Amino acid sequence: MFTIRLVTEQFAPNQTVTLRWAPNWELDRGGVFTDGAWSFDLDEAAFPGGIEFKFVLSPGRWMAGGNLYLPPAALTGVHDFADQADGVGIFPPAQALTTENPLVAQRFFARNLSPDHVYDVIVVGSGMGGGILASRLAAAGADVLVLEAGSYLFPTHIGNLPRRLKVGQFDKHIWSLWPDFKVEAYQNTPGSTYAGGQGFNLGGRSLFWGGLIPRQAEWELAGWPAAVRDYLLTTGFAAAEAAMSSVPPDPDPFQAASRAALQTAMPGFVAEDARVAVQYEGATELTLGAGLFSTADLLLQDRLLDDPGQALPTVNLNFAVWRADVDPADPGRVVGVTGWDLLGRRQRSFKANQVVLAAG
After folding, report:
1. Which of 81, 179, 181, 307 has a Cα-to-Cα distance from 204 of 20 to 30 A?
2. Does the pLDDT at position 316 exceed 70?
3. CB of 42 closer than 8 Å to CB of 51
4. Using one digit for the tens of pLDDT, what is the confidence trace for 10-33?
């Protein structure tokens, strides 16, 4: 008997590291996390020619670099391997979403997996578009199902959480944790410097955005349908700002002087404070401001609402939608969706009278 260990704090549970070896590279060998390492106990008799192996971070992130090898003479005792090589983690950055089911999600986002329940509306995606739409539909009494491929990551915008302090550096961003969690599911073409990413999590990219919500001017909406343009310019923008909890700070002499200076320096323009989706102050003096807006806050607040007369949106996390299902008798009518349950690891379908795609 011999033991292979991956010594790690970074990849401890709730993450799972498995072991795979030649020639059956498709098979996972589970281990046990103990004493700060993933341990795999193996029988040397099963490897007369030694063992060629790699660690895999579930559900399928192979360690970078070449295969590891232990010759027959070394198949005894304990063999420790580090989770970094030259200061770089052995597992490459995520190119796919992470699946997990933490306690908060289990308690407040209980999933409904019934294939027979017919919802009024299924909303695919819980980000800025899908999250707000689902919340408003539920508030209006609709039976709503939100399907989100990602997991519960944070309950609020990361600007409302502790931030990474860069000593001696100026950092104007409030989304500094974004590189730690974004998914880069693409390959740049030669010469491209694009560095975008996707947010697979409750709230989507609304957890990581900058909060700036400037109104479009009338001339910018000239090519829009007249009904939409008129709505936005009359009540629409104001309603959207209210939905995003945009509450400006108290008047400030410096801000007033800055606006006046800009107005003088740039005649023909109107200088005003930038509109941002930030609630600086609560609704009353006895309440706290909610800070930067995200749909993770919004949907969590909806789920925590204790009102027997109010419909709550159902939120199924860790479900990746594959396709929209149509009525065989009326192919132009969508009646549900089918996708992959990343927790149950099986295909599932859900039914609805209406389906809205809001997934990025």
Report:
1. 307
2. yes
3. yes
4. 888 877 899 999 999 999 999 999
Burial annotation 312-349 (CB, 10 A radius, 16+ → b, else e): bbbbbbbbbbeeebeeeeeeeebbbbebebbbeeeebe
Kindly report the pTM of this predicted structure.
Answer: 0.73
Distance CA 315, CA 143 (A): 11
Which amino acid type is present at position 144? V
Specify the residue for token string 């909806």.
302
CA distance 40 to 274: 56
CATH topology for the 2-89 domain: Immunoglobulin-like (2.60.40)
Q: How many angstroms separate the CA atoms of 336 and 334, rounded? A: 6
Burial of 243 (0-12, 13-18, 19+ CB in 10 A): middle
pLDDT, one tens digit per residue, over 163-192 is: 777 677 676 678 778 888 888 888 788 888
